[in-house]
Write a structure and sequence with these properties.
Elements (H helix, E strand, L loop, with lengths): L3 H19 L5 H9 L7 H19 L2 H9 L4 H5 L1 H10 L3 H14 L4 H15 L17
Helix pairs in contact: 1-3, 3-6, 4-7, 4-8, 7-8
């Protein structure tokens, strides 16, 4: 579990990164205004919600769809590691989230760059389905050029 000060630092960092991508001016006042929209900033749960939402936005805006799946399958940031289910929910709740997840899975499974891409797609499907085995009637693919 992340400390409250770590959550605040993660929120600040994520907000700055997203705003740099969008070209928005970074000011302390703007940060506070946006953060207050999530609720009472005295509560830990508010900072958790902020971090999860900002991490989801970063994944959706900052990564290719196949990298989105890789990150959700093997979380590599403090927020993604601490809140994997909540992060997936936030990604899927975003208007483009489901389409991006579907596209990323298709890319990793149908047009993998490496064998581990296909394995990553299957592991992610297992995670979200809640089953250890998935019996899909999908064609075998070859990594060799035709």
């Amino acid at each position: 579990m992340l400390k409250l000060q770590d959550l605040k630092a993660e929120a600040q960092s994520s907000w700055e990164t997203l705003n740099l991508l969008d070209g928005t001016e970074l000011t302390a006042e703007a940060f506070q205004v946006v953060m207050r929209k999530f609720g009472d900033l005295r509560h830990r749960s508010t900072w958790e919600r902020i971090c999860i939402q900002l991490e989801a936005l970063w994944l959706l805006k900052g990564l290719e769809n196949c990298d989105l799946i890789r990150t959700l399958a093997a979380p590599d940031t403090p927020i993604a590691q601490a809140y994997p289910a909540e992060l997936l929910d936030a990604v899927l709740a975003h208007p483009s989230g489901l389409a991006q997840v579907k596209n990323g899975l298709q890319q990793l499974y149908s047009d993998p760059l490496t064998e581990s891409d296909r394995i990553c797609a299957m592991q992610f499907l297992k995670r979200i389905s809640g089953y250890e085995t998935i019996d899909l009637d999908l064609p075998e693919i070859s990594l060799q050029a035709a």
